User: Which sequence fits this backbone?
């Protein structure tokens, strides 16, 4: 398995997993993408549908109770019937005891709030009614995400050699009826960092042109016209959206669904299979060719070169960087992205 990890809820607190009993459905919510997916079975990845998330439904934690969604933001929460439209939306205040939880769940009409290794159980998050605390069972610790459904609690374990597993139990206190299930990669793919397990990201520095005067005995002027690729290229059919029923009613903040997921993956650190690239600063448009004039004067015995970064996720998804960097010498084959970023941007006449 690729040496990378999923981003836990603790590090990307606006992504969450919940379930609601009224329609027998699991949800993975990505407010950073303005999207969420639903599935009737995380084990098989059955009936996956992608939908828009309403702007007022963006929060830090999510939990569902009966027919309503609870969107938690700091010291308040918003209760809605539909995360696509803010239907019957109402803002309420969290009781002090219910604030600053690591994970939130609801089952048996009771809310369960995990804080470290302690679980707070309440019947009402406004008043902390019927509050009870207990210790999280050792077998139930260390989950990346926690959610509940019916009479059961679930949590996602870090990926191992056998893939991704999530656990089900009827008690966080005793770990009774404990079962381990595998999670479909169609679900994992939508989680932060999930793309890297099937489609690793990479960056290469491409030498666009070199003005070589290493063998010259005097200063020499070079003027060369050529074209470079900029923007992104994505094949129409990709593994990312395989088995997904896409019902996006409005354009998402990053354009196409695949584009949004790829940009998110590249923005992550190497620990999570990304490249720590500020993709918001990259102009995300269809691949195009741009004419460039490389106009440079090179002293005798020197070589000046022009470079571009090309970022990839898998084999089919690429971004040709918007910046061209000027180097007073050829970079080594092992040159890093940090070295590239430290170089000045090239503009005709600037070299």
Assistant:
């Amino acid at each position: 398995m690729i040496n990378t990890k999923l981003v836990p809820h603790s590090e990307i607190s606006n992504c969450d997993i919940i379930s609601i009993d009224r329609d027998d459905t699991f949800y993975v919510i990505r407010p950073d993408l303005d999207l969420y997916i639903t599935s009737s079975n995380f084990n098989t990845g059955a009936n996956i549908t992608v939908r828009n998330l309403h702007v007022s439904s963006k929060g830090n934690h999510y939990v569902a109770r009966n027919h309503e969604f609870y969107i938690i933001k700091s010291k308040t929460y918003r209760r809605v019937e539909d995360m696509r439209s803010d239907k019957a939306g109402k803002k309420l205040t969290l009781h002090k005891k219910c604030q600053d939880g690591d994970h939130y769940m609801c089952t048996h009409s009771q809310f369960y709030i995990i804080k470290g290794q302690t679980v707070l159980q309440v019947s009402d998050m406004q008043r902390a009614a019927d509050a009870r605390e207990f210790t999280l069972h050792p077998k139930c610790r260390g989950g990346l995400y926690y959610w509940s459904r019916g009479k059961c609690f679930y949590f996602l374990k870090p990926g191992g050699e056998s893939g991704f597993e999530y656990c089900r139990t009827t008690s966080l206190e005793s770990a009774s009826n404990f079962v381990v299930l595998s999670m479909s990669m169609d679900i994992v793919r939508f989680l932060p960092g999930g793309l890297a397990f099937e489609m690793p990201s990479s960056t290469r520095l491409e030498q666009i042109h070199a003005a070589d005067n290493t063998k010259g005995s005097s200063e020499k002027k070079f003027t060369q016209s050529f074209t470079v690729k900029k923007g992104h290229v994505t094949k129409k059919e990709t593994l990312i959206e395989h088995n997904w029923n896409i019902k996006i009613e409005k354009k998402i903040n990053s354009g196409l669904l695949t584009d949004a997921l790829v940009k998110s993956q590249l923005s992550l650190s190497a620990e999570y299979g990304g490249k720590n690239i500020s993709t918001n600063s990259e102009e995300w448009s269809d691949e195009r060719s741009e004419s460039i004039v490389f106009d440079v004067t090179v002293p005798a015995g020197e070589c000046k070169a022009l470079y571009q970064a090309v970022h990839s996720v898998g084999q089919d998804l690429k971004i040709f960087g918007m910046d061209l960097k000027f180097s007073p010498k050829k970079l080594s084959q092992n040159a890093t992205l940090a070295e590239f970023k430290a170089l000045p941007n090239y503009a005709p006449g600037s070299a």
